[in-house]
Amino acid sequence: MKKIITLILALILCLSSLGLFGCAEESGGKAVLLSSFENFDRDIQPIHVLDGMGDVGENRDMQFVKGGKKSLYATPVGLTWVTKFPYLVIPTTSINYNMNYGNFENVEKVTCWVYNTSDETEWMSMGLTGLTRTHQYAESAIRPNGEYFDLAPGWNFIEYYIYPAYMSMQSFDIKSVYGIFFEFDRSEEITVASAIKFYIDEVKLHYVKGERKPITTLNLNSDAENGAWEVCDFEDSMQSYHFAIPYVIPSAIWNQPHIRTVNASKYNITAKSGVNVLELIKRAGTNNFACCYMQMEGTALKEAFKNIGQDLIDNPSNYVLKFDIYNTSDVVDGITIELFSDRSYDETLNSENAQTGTYFSSGTKVNPGEWYTYEKNIGAIDNNIKNRAAGSSSTTDDDKTPVLFSQHPGGITFSWAAFRTSSNMEDRVILIDNFRIEKVS
C-alpha cells in the first residue's frame, strides 16, 4: 500500500513538472500555461482577429504541434486599402472559463512556439493590449509597442520580456492586460489559400520569484566634466518604448509606420553611439494627403534634465539638445520635428491659465546615405514658448503662463507627409540615434 501511494505521489509530481496542471516551478517563479489550444471553446473561439488577419483556427497536424495534440494556425493576409498590419489577440481573461491572468505586474516574460511555413525569414511583432475606455476590446484599444522577432523557417522559440516601467510611458495599465497580440506582415497574396501560414503553440506566462522591484531611474550616462548627458541611445532595446505611434481612427486611410531597435550593421553603417539605432519604417500608402507621426514621450528627457541640475534651469541657453538621423533611401527625405513642454506636472495649470508650449522646426531635410545632426538650443526653445505666451504672431494667448521646456520637458513629435511611389509602393527607412544634451563651450 505504501509503495502504491509513493508511486501515485511521484506520478503527480512528474505531471506537474510537465505543466499539465497549469503551472510549474522554474528557476525564477511559476510558469502558467495560458493556452495550448486543446480546447476550442476556451482557447480559440475567444481570439480576436483584426486588420485583415485572414483566418485562424484549430490545427491537428502533429507536424505543427509542440505540446498536446493541437495548436493554433494563423493565416495573415492584410487589407489592400490601408497600410495597417494584420494581428490576432489571445485573451488573458475569461469570465466563462474562470480565467484571470490580466495582472502582469509580476510577469517576467511570455513564451511560445511559432512555426513559419515560408522558405524565408518572416517578421512577427508580439506584445500586450488593453481595453477601450468602455471596457470593450476593439481596434481602438491601447496597444503599446510590441517586440519584433525574426521567424526562421520552421519552429521558433519566442521569449517576450515584460517591462512595466517602460510600458507605463505609453499610459498602459500593466495590471489590466486584456490579451497578447501577434502581428504579422501583410501578405503579397490576396487569398487565404495562397498566403503564408503560421502555427502558434504552448503560450506560457512566467512570473518573477517574489515581487518585481520597481525601476526608479533609467540609469542614463552622464559626463558632466565634458558637458554631455545621455537621453536615449537605444543600447537597451526597451528604450524604443519611449516612442509611440499615436492612435488614428479606424476609418482613416493612413500609412502606419513601424518602429523598433535594430543593430546599425543591418544597414552597413556605424551607429552614432554604441551599436543600436531606432529604425523608423515609413510605409508607402494609398493617401498622399495624410500626415503620419511618431512621438517621443518625456520620461528620458526629464531624467537627463534632472541629472544636469539647477544650472539648466538658470542658464538654459548654455545647453543644446541633439540627436542624429540617417536616411537609408535613395532620395532626399523630410521630417518635421516639434518639441513641446509639459504642463501636466501641475494640475492647477489647466487650459484657462496655461498652455503646452511648443517649438516647431522647419521641415528638416536629410540627404540619402548620410547622417544629419539635429540640434536646438534649449534657451531658444524657452524663448519661443515665452513669445507665444506673450502674444507673438503665432498666438494671442497673452494671459497664459508659459511652461518652459527647460523646466518641464514634454517630449518630441516627428511628423512627415504620407507618400506613395508610382509603381511599387516602396517603404522608406530612417534611423535615429544618440539623443543627448551637450553644454555649449
- What would you give as the CATH superfamily of the largest domain? Galactose-binding domain-like
Q: How far apart lie the N and C ends?
A: 86 Å
CATH topology of the largest domain: Jelly Rolls
Report Rg. 25 Å
- Contiguous uncertain segments of 5+ residues: 1-27, 248-253, 347-354, 392-398
Number of discrete helical segments: 6
Q: Roughly what is the average pLDDT, rounded to an integer? A: 79
The rough form would be described as globular
Number of strands: 29
- Please give the share of residues in helix: 10-25%
Q: Can you tell me the CATH architecture of the largest domain?
A: Sandwich
What is the CATH class name of the largest domain?
A: Mainly Beta
Largest sheet: 7 strands, antiparallel
Describe this structure as you would to a colleague.
It is a single chain. With 441 residues, the chain is mostly beta strands. The chain folds into 2 domains: 187 residues, Galactose-binding domain-like (Jelly Rolls); 218 residues, Sandwich (Jelly Rolls), CATH 2.60.120. The chain contains 6 helices and 29 strands. Strands 1, 2, 4, 5, 9, 12 and 14 form a 7-stranded antiparallel sheet that branches. Strands 15, 16, 18, 19, 21, 26 and 29 form a 7-stranded antiparallel sheet that branches. Strand 1 and strand 2 form a beta hairpin.
Short description:
The protein is mainly beta and 441 residues long. The chain folds into two domains: 187 residues, Jelly Rolls (Sandwich); 218 residues, Jelly Rolls (Sandwich), CATH 2.60.120. The chain is built from six helices and 29 strands.
